[in-house]
Amino acid sequence: MDGFPSFLAVIGHPIGHTLSPVLHRAAFRALGIDASYTAYDVAFERLPEVVRAMRTLEFRGFNVTIPHKTAVIDLLDECTPTALRMGAVNTVYVSDGKWIGDNTDGAGYLLSLGREHGFAVQGKRAVLLGAGGAAMGVADALLGAGLDALWILNRHRAKAEALARRLAQHYQTNIVTGTIAEWPRERVDLLINATPVGMVGFLEGELPVPPDVFHERMLVSDLVYRPLVTPLLAAADKAGAKTSGGLGMLVGQGALAFERWFGVFPSMDVMLAAAMPELDGSASK
């Protein structure tokens, strides 16, 4: 579309069962784009040489996952304000000959909420479970979209407080921190699980919150997508709350990355359909 060879990849360590090639190859086929997308297992110490090699081979761009999302920043020409706020890059694209680092995780999450539920964040109150990288991306997007109040609850209070301080540098929204046991007295509209609780191979069958916190006007969102219906989502559904699984965020961030590379927004339905048969085993972004 712009003269750049269409070589793309995702890099991480371990890369194992990433779904990214499945998502993007399905989008290539649907749009008739001649491109390749490969998963590369890149040890941390090899990151600089791999990035240099991709520059030499004129890759159109690449995705970045654990443990390279922060370290890759120093190997790029520029980063978007979003990536700089988050201190992490998940997508690299070429613009005017420069390699630009971006982060589409948070925007992909908002995209999935709007697409699946028509959920408008502005003026709402949310509880976020967890304070790691996934929590940072979601929190940044929610606050940027006009969230009225945010509770960050984490097993270790200090980590929640550190995330809150970082967010407070950019947003004036009321942010409260605590442990996961300290559920707010106020009625909340959105609950997001950004912890691995309930994921296959990690505390399977457990709930990250007490079962009495759900109500019928709440949207309960779990970033875990293996299994597709987590214990949290099952309990929330039983209590009459709306639910949203993690696959939507995965597809949303991937679709936004695709748009950065090709200037065309792919069909999320096509990407979702391609991902579903792959979820009979472990998978990670």
Write the layout of secondary structure elements.
Blueprint: E1 7-12, H1 20-31, E2 36-41, H2 47-56, E3 61-64, E4 78-79, H3 81-86, E5 91-95, E6 98-102, H4 105-117, E7 125-129, H5 133-144, E8 149-153, H6 157-168, E9 174-178, E10 190-193, E11 219-222, H7 231-238, E12 242-244, H8 247-262, H9 268-275
Parallel strand pairs: 1-2, 1-3, 4-6, 7-8, 7-10, 8-9, 10-11, 11-12
Antiparallel strand pairs: 3-5, 5-6
Helix pairs in contact: 1-9, 4-5, 4-8, 8-9
Q: Could you provide a short overview of the structure?
A:
With 285 residues, this protein is an alpha/beta fold. It is built from nine helices and twelve strands. The C terminus is likely disordered.
Can you tell me about this structure?
- It contains 9 helices and 12 strands.
- The chain is α/β, with parallel strands linked by helices.
- The chain has 2 domains: 129 residues, 3-Layer(aba) Sandwich (Rossmann fold); 140 residues, Rossmann fold, CATH 3.40.50.
- The strands form 2 sheets. A 6-stranded mixed β-sheet has the order 2-1-3-5-6-4. The chain has a 6-stranded parallel β-sheet with strand order 9-8-7-10-11-12, sandwiched between helices.
- The radius of gyration is 19 Å and the shape is globular.
- The C terminus is likely disordered.
